[in-house]
Amino acid sequence: MSKKNDMKSDWNPDSDDVKRDQVAAYDEMRERCPVAHSEVRGWSVFRHADVVQVLNDHERFSNQVSRHLSVPNGMDPPEHTVYRQIIEPYFASEPMAAFEPICRDIASDLLSEVAALGSDVEVMGDLAQHFAVRVQCAFLGWPTSLHEPLIRWANSHQRATRDADRVALSALARELDAIVDDLIEQRVQSGAKASDDVTASLMHQTVHDRRLSNEEIGSILRNWTVGELGTISASIGIFLQHLADNSAHQDVVRRDRSRLPAAIDEILRVHNPLHGNRRTTTCPVKLGGRSIGAGERVYINWIAANRDPFVFEDAASVKFDRNPNDNLLYGAGIHVCPGAPLARLEMRVFMEALMDRTTTFHLQPTSPALPASFPASGYATVRIFFHWK
């Protein structure tokens, strides 16, 4: 048996303690065993400094972690650089400014629908998921008929990932492939122009003196969709839970909305909406005092790294005036999230619309928030009482 398979586990990511409170469990691991091995997850990296080392060393820690094409997330330079140059313009200041009023209308319309149902709202199922899917479809130019199917798909994908159900995951991958292929084919048949929507624009992009293939377009759209639906939904739940439980912070952003961007990033630093990302070692490496062989799985734990007390004083506390430079909410290095401008826009616009429609909101004392389980972060349920205007 190989040394790799003989290695003793430092922890059990599937233990009841971890499932009960991921944030506390990862905080404990960061202090006890900052680079930890488990049979389930390979090597987990919890400390901020070690995570930054991985992020900045793409030669030894490769993003090519899957046998399936992943554009550009699962690529390393120089290939990553070429495709990244195609992606970034979609999130530049001009397209973001053009999308803002569309995003605002979506938030306003959804809040009107939810307000009509009453004051007691389960945020994740009644609000957060619907906002995430509506905004994503609007940004990509997808029809509203996909809203409910995509919510069902995202929930099923999360369950299958949590259960490590490879059969279900394969079926779900084929289901999303079919949706994306159909959207592309519709545009091919209609002779869509690059200016029609984001999806059509991708069909006219070129790489290496040729147009992107359907497989490449599909990979980009899948990455955007899978990432967007989960993280935006989780972010709304985390942010609203915090403000509902902290009236002083809610008052601050109500009085001065210019503080919203910093408040959003700081609250999401303390409770990251994205659990982690994967890498694969290309050679033997030393990390955090541990020896890791070539071809091993390395899992970056954003939640623990962003709460590291060696980097953030009183790390578990939300401080709106904290220096944001070390915040890894959107990653760092060459693979920093290209969609960060869109995510920040969506969160800000959603909160501005919510404050326009409410005087205050607070948690339901008889229904405590239920934490989400891996692979999700944030909350599975959050009940909030809204005082609608």
TrEMBL record:
It comes from the Bacteria. It holds the Pfam family p450. Transmembrane segments: none annotated. One of its GO terms (molecular function) is heme binding. Belongs to the cytochrome P450 family. This is Cytochrome P450.
